[in-house]
Specification:
It comes from Accumulibacter regalis. Its EC number is 3.4.11.2. Keywords: Aminopeptidase, Hydrolase, Metal-binding, Metalloprotease, Protease, Zinc. One of its GO terms (molecular function) is alanyl aminopeptidase activity. By secondary structure, the protein is an alpha+beta fold. The protein folds into five domains: about 190 residues, Immunoglobulin-like (Sandwich); about 130 residues, Neutral Protease Domain 2 (Neutral Protease, domain 2, Orthogonal Bundle), CATH 1.10.390; about 110 residues, Sandwich (Immunoglobulin-like), CATH 2.60.40; about 150 residues, Peptidase M1, alanyl aminopeptidase, C-terminal domain (Zincin-like fold); about 130 residues, Peptidase M1, alanyl aminopeptidase, C-terminal domain (Zincin-like fold), CATH 1.25.50.10. The strands form eight sheets. An eight-stranded mixed sheet has the order 6-5-9-3-2-12-15-14, with no helix packed on it. Strands 17-18-19-21-20 form a five-stranded mixed sheet, with helices on one face. A five-stranded mixed sheet has the order 28-30-26-25-32, covered by helices on one side. A hairpin with a 2-residue loop joins strand 14 and strand 15. The longest helix has 29 residues. The structure holds tryptophan and zinc ion (ZN).
């Protein structure tokens, strides 16, 4: 489809499909230089469709049609109309067998959508609309069919032949070829179709479900990588058990397969019984993968497994409902992560990511509701909003109705909709019906883009012993503008926001939470209460308080909003030291740091020196002192907010002042607390060999934060320390952390470490990705030149998404270097996006998102960015994918 014909699709235009497909029989022949796909579809008119008999329309892309027949009779030229993307049959019978044969060319499919060739064989990716690149089909998720698939291929080069479901026969065909047949017992939408024909090694295991059924597990990987599969298998088994225990959901399959492939656009794909994974989320060995990698593997393996119920058994009616499966499944994988690791640290990391990615998205040109209203290219809407804000929305429902009611809601959702393709409304209805809570107003979270602002103020009345909390909300960033406009606009209705609140006493103890008019029973025993904010402004009066409290608001980040409350620095220090809610302890530290960095950035940008108060150092010293209580938490608390997150709080971003301010504070802490940092580093060393446990990972995280602070000193001692760790580490976490610290420092050790790292790891693709990204993330002034040079390095490959993400996306996230004043970063990235678009539009469009916030910068930078974007936009043959992203960036 070229850009001129790319159409905008609207959610409101949904109509049920005129025809259903009951069954699909595919025969796929892998020949030299081509693949032939024969398909037999059993179709019938949809009883639920409009009374007007509509024609039968099928989707196709890049198909060379060889033959077409209905009920065995070849179609004549007048019986159908065919374009490059549609096959229309005007007067079909009400029930029919449609037989088609097409030729496709997976060897030259660099988009990694549909059927494509990777190093070790052939793989598929059908979500969202890749199935149409394999055969003619009504490619939409509300058509669910039973599939039988037979693969035929050369036995020596493609020994492994897989498809969804259960094996239903295999054998030799003579002349070196073999075949295998698979049958999926569950009806599914075509986006969950998968097949694999490749040369792969396999690790097999087993899982016995709670009802005693045995499930055969298999993980397929590139030959020679079996020693990197154990963690993925373990994660899968833990996820299967967890879903039984927490949600009562059992695996419904006899065979559950995971296939890892090095060329993959995203993280992984939940194809029924045959998940296809980016190698990045399968392969791990202590010396090649970091603690973060291990945890990501846990999460992605669990995520895809959880989709089997939330996505596959109950799927989406249309792609606007994407968050129905993605938001809910992210929520589920987050809960799994919280149960496997530290709940508090897991939550902190998720909120950090949300603020770094989703908040900017929601404030930029690609802002869209969790359930979008329209799109041009659906692949552009696999976003942090749909996934992560969608998960926050599910979490808010859980917070509002309570854990038990939430579980009843899930049960009811499956009871009502198993085997169906449904909408977000259906999910919310199940939650409302199971809990008795009216969620009508809450649904605004699905329909309205933008991050709401929440303003809070408090007043303690000594006489009455009451604390009055006033909460107000608006989508607009300033309180005064909010009140004026909000009250006038009938469209601007308030959100239903759960605000979890605690009150801290002078010694950090939780004070009683009794709300006026409720009677003491309601609040006396609880240390946190969830207030329902449903109006633009509401007051809550807490009674029987002997002294003024320090209020702890939005505990555990109970809603994805921007909270404004004027805590004094002393109050924040108090919360950081004492709040019983660990999330808000962390949050208080982040607020303190943000305040200082933003003020310093302002100073630096007008040529004034930055000011760093001793009180911040004292707070950091206390964290170090108590770090052994919870090293992973201490590591998070010592990590300053990132530049992209901080930039959102500036009216006009000065990236170099911001960068210098943030690093200035890091350096100040290092100068003041050098000994304490070194002590913490030393005392948390592990004598035991590497273990991927949360406790050991927490100690490593803490030590590596200390090391990175020490690196700010640019001293010989710090460099030697990092070099020693780099050379002696028995695991990738420590080795890479040392490399990352050195990569920020212009010294000889940096050069040596980078060279020796590549020398050692050049054969491990995923480790080479780390080597690329650590260079692209460097703050050193020659980073763009280095990145340019790496484009020509044998380690880089524009056709491989992991390499593109590692080098180019990392550079795009390098705030100070990408936003260089002379526009060099912009022009570089725009050129690369244009090149990549010809190979892989999906990944090019993802890369183009790095331009989202260009309007937040000063005039000269804006000029450079718009120039680069205009040039990209005007490229002949630009994909609809990139065109949509760049078009929006230029419009808004
Ligand atoms: N559904 C996948 C998930 O689990 C997302 C995904 C994988 C995807 N590959 C894709 C989406 C390619 C679009 C295109 O989140
Ligand atoms: Zn998903």
């Amino acid at each position: 489809m070229n850009s001129e014909t790319a159409q905008r699709i609207h959610r409101q235009d949904y109509t049920p499909p005129p025809f259903l497909v009951d069954s699909v029989e595919l025969d796929v022949h892998f020949n030299a230089g081509e693949v032939l796909v024969s398909s037999q579809l059993q179709l019938r008119r949809n009883p639920a469709a409009a009374a007007q008999p509509a024609p039968l329309q099928l989707d196709g892309q890049g198909l060379e049609t060889i033959s077409l027949a209905i009920d065995g009779t070849p179609l004549g030229a007048d019986d159908y109309r065919c374009t490059s993307s549609t096959l229309t049959i005007d007067n079909p019978p009400d029930a029919l067998t449609l037989t088609t044969q097409v030729r496709i060319d997976p060897d030259n499919n660099s988009s990694l959508s549909g059927l494509y060739r990777s190093k070790d064989g052939y793989f598929t990716q059908c979500e969202a609309q890749g199935f149409r690149r394999i055969t003619w089909f009504p490619d939409r998720p509300d058509i669910m069919s039973r599939y039988q698939v037979t693969l035929h291929a050369d036995k020596a080069s493609l020994p492994v032949l897989l498809a969804n479901g259960n094996p239903a026969g295999s054998g030799d065909q003579g002349n070196g070829r073999h075949w295998a047949k698979w049958e999926d017992p569950f009806a599914k939408p075509c986006y969950l179709f998968a097949l694999v024909a490749a040369r792969l090694d396999v690790l097999r295991d087993e899982f016995t479900t709670s009802s005693g059924r045995s499930v055969q597990l298999a993980v397929f990987v590139e030959p020679g990588k079996l020693d990197q599969c154990a963690h993925a298998v373990d994660a899968l088994q833990r996820a299967m058990r967890w879903d039984e225990e927490v949600f009562g959901l059992e695996c419904d399959l006899d065979h559950y397969m995971i296939v890892a492939v090095g060329d993959f656009n995203m993280g992984a794909m939940e194809n029924k019984g045959l998940n296809v994974f980016n190698t990045k989320y399968v392969l791990a060995r202590a010396d090649t993968a970091t603690d973060a990698d291990y945890q990501n593997i846990d999460r992605v393996v669990a995520h895809e497994y959880f989709h089997n119920w939330t996505g596959n058994r109950v799927t989406c009616r249309d792609w606007f409902q994407l968050s129905l499966k993605e938001g809910l499944t992210v929520y589920r994988d987050q809960e799994f992560g919280a149960d496997m690791h530290s709940r508090a640290v897991t939550r902190i990391r998720e909120v950090r990511a949300l603020r770094a990615m989703q908040f900017p998205e929601d404030a930029g040109p690609m802002a869209h509701p969790v359930r979008p209203d329209s799109y041009i290219e659906i692949n552009n809407f696999y976003t942090s909003t749909v996934y992560d804000k969608g998960a926050e929305v599910v979490r808010m429902i859980e917070t509002l109705i309570g854990k038990e009611a939430f579980r009843r809601g899930m049960d009811l959702y499956f009871e009502r909709h198993d085997g169906q393709a449904v909408t977000c409304d259906d999910f919310v209805a199940a939650m409302a019906d199971a809990s008795g809570v009216d969620l009508t107003q809450f649904k605004r979270w699905y329909d309205q883009a933008g991050t709401p602002h929440l303003w809070a103020s408090g007043h303690y009345d000594e006489q009455a012993r009451t604390y009055t909390l006033t909460l107000s909300q608006s989508l607009l960033a300033s309180a005064t503008a909010a009140n004026a406009e909000a009250l006038q606009s009938p469209l601007h209705t308030p959100f239903h926001i759960p605000v979890a609140v605690g009150l801290n006493g002078a010694h950090g103890e939780d004070m009683p939470l009794m709300i006026a008019g409720e009677g003491s029973a309601a609040g006396s025993g609880r240390t946190t209460r969830v207030l329902s904010l449903t109006e633009f402004e509401q007051q809550f009066v807490f009674e029987e308080l002997p002294a003024a409290p320090v209020v702890s608001l939005l505990r555990d980040f109970s809603a994805p909003v921007i909270l404004d409350f004027s805590w004094s620095d002393e109050e924040l220090a108090h919360l950081l030291a004492h709040d019983s809610d660990p999330f808000n302890r962390w949050e208080a530290g982040q607020r303190l740091a943000s305040r200082l960095i933003l003020a310093a950035a302002e100073d630096l940008s007008v040529g004034r020196p930055a000011y760093w108060p001793q009180s911040f150092v004292e707070a950091a010293a206390r964290l170090l002192e108590h770090a052994s209580d919870d090293p992973a938490f201490a590591a998070e608390a010592l990590t300053l907010p990132g530049e992209a997150t901080l930039a959102e709080e500036m009216t006009v971003v000065d990236p170099s002042a911001l960068h210098d301010a943030r690093n200035g504070l890091r350096r100040f802490v290092a100068e003041q607390l050098g000994n304490a940092l070194l002590h913490c580093y030393t005392t948390h060393a592990d004598d035991a060999p590497y273990q991927a446990t949360p406790a050991a990972a927490g100690r490593r995280a803490l030590r590596n934060v200390c090391l990175s602070y020490l690196g700010e000193l640019h001293s010989d001692e710090a460099r030697a320390l990092a070099m020693r760790q780099f050379e002696s580490a028995d695991n990738m976490t420590d080795q890479f952390a040392a490399l990352a610290t050195l990569a920020q420092d212009d010294c000889q050790e940096r050069v040596l470490a980078l060279a020796s790292f590549y020398e050692r790891w050049h054969d491990e693709a995923l480790v080479v990705d780390k080597w690329l990204s650590v260079q692209a993330a460097s703050r050193l002034p020659d980073t763009l030149a280095v990145v340019r040079g790496l484009l020509e390095h044998p380690a880089f490959d524009l056709r491989n998404p992991n390499k593109v993400y590692a080098l180019l996306n990392t550079f795009g996230n390098n705030h100070v270097r990408f936003h260089a004043a002379d526009g060099s970063g912009y022009h570089f990235l725009a050129t690369q996006i244009g090149e990549l678009d010809r190979l892989n539009p999906q990944v090019a469009a993802r890369l183009a998102r790095r331009f989202d916030r260009w309007r937040k910068f000063d005039e000269p930078r804006q000029q450079q960015a718009s120039f680069a974007l205009e040039k990209l936009h005007s490229l002949a043959g630009l994909s609809p994918d990139v065109r949509e992203i760049v078009g929006r960036a230029l419009e808004h």
